[in-house]
Amino acid sequence: MAEIYVMSNVTIDENTVSGPEVVDSAVGFALCTGLLALCYAAYLSKLILAAPSGSAKMKEIAAAIQEGSKAFLVREYTWLAGFVGVVSVIMLLAISMTTAIMFLLGAVISGTPSDFQLAL
């Protein structure tokens, strides 16, 4: 088994080195790749929205799909809101208010992209 040395927030074993400078570069890499992904998504959205809509029948089918998707999401979010409410009350009572608020915030943020997707 390899020995691991820990000193001043830097961990060294025979294969890896981790510490503040490694974490900083990992965070920078994650931010850069995330920004690159958002730029690519914006490019693809622009490309798709610039394409022709298609025939009247295709537009009719697309409208029906969009209507069904909206109805599904309204139903799903209605049930999900109840579930999230119950779980956040349990978290409030069992853990802390901060945990319950962060759970609610996470639920809202994770549901937001689907609203934007349907708007496109």
TrEMBL record:
CC terms in the record's Gene Ontology section: endomembrane system; membrane
EC number, as in UniProt: 7.1.3.1
Enzyme class of the recorded protein, top EC level: translocase
GO molecular function list: diphosphate hydrolysis-driven proton transmembrane transporter activity; inorganic diphosphate phosphatase activity
Keyword Metal-binding (UniProt): no
Domain of life: Eukaryota
Subcellular location: Endomembrane system
Pfam family, one: H_PPase
Principal location: membrane
Identification of the protein by name: H(+)-exporting diphosphatase
Native organism: Cymbomonas tetramitiformis
